[in-house]
Structure formats: C-alpha cells, structure tokens
Amino acid sequence: MPAPRPQESEMSNMLRDFRNPAEIAKVGQEIYERKHRAELERSANAQFAAIDVQSEEAYVAPTPDGAIAKGRSKAPGGLFHLIKVGALGAFRVSYTSNADSDWIFRQERESVAQN
Q1: pLDDT at residue 101 tops 50
Q2: pLDDT at residue 93 in the model
Q3: Long-range pairs for 55-60 at CB < 8 Å and ≥24 separation?
Q4: Is the alpha carbon torsion for 14, 24, 62, 89 positive or negative?
Q5: 41-60 pLDDT, tens per residue?
C-alpha cells in the first residue's frame, strides 16, 4: 500500500519560506485550530504543544521545554509554534509605564532617531 499523500496545506507549509516569527505564529495557530485543538483540549488540557509549522505535527508535554525537546527529537530542523493547550497564550507578557523600566525602549527610539 502506498504511503498517504500529505494534504495540500501540509505541502504548502513544507515549501514555505518562514523568515518572519509572526508568520510562524500565525501559521502555527491556524494549524492548531484546524487540526489539533479539539483533540488536545480533551486529552492534554493545560499542557504545552509545540506545533511544527512545516509538518503540522503537534508534540505535547507538561512543560514548554519538554514540548520543544520532543519536537526537536522528531524534527531537528522543525519550526515550532508553542501553545498552552486550553489557554489564550503560553506566556504572560507584562508592560510597565515606569520610565525607569522603559530604558530599553528609550534606547531603541534614540537609535532610530539618530539614523
């Protein structure tokens, strides 16, 4: 019996040139929603899934590092989008309006202004 052929979306992702992290995140989220969300929310809620945006495979583990490690062991050249199953995001990002803490942004603005 011949091997199953990849779906059209998998083929286009295999050939796609991912240079932009935002594109990897967008495609990874689309794959998760289309292919993995329903099953993973039943079987692996609150765990982490590393979605390989080229093969569309999901690698699940209790920790972010574990999911990425599992993915890298199966697909060493893979590009992964990390998701916490059942959550809005894998990590919480904070912002402060404290001027003393905003030094990195101030440096960047000054650098851009000089150029």
Answers
A1: no
A2: 52
A3: 55/10, 55/13, 55/14, 56/9, 56/10, 56/13, 56/31, 58/32, 60/85
A4: negative
A5: 999 999 999 999 999 999 99
User: Residue with structure tokens 């998998």?
Assistant: 10
Give the length of the chain: 115
Q: State both tokens at 106.
A: 């101030």
What pLDDT does residue 20 have?
A: 83
- HEC secondary structure over 62-90: CCHHHHHHHHHHHCCCCCEEEEECCCCCC
What ranges do the domains of the chain cover?
A: 8-114
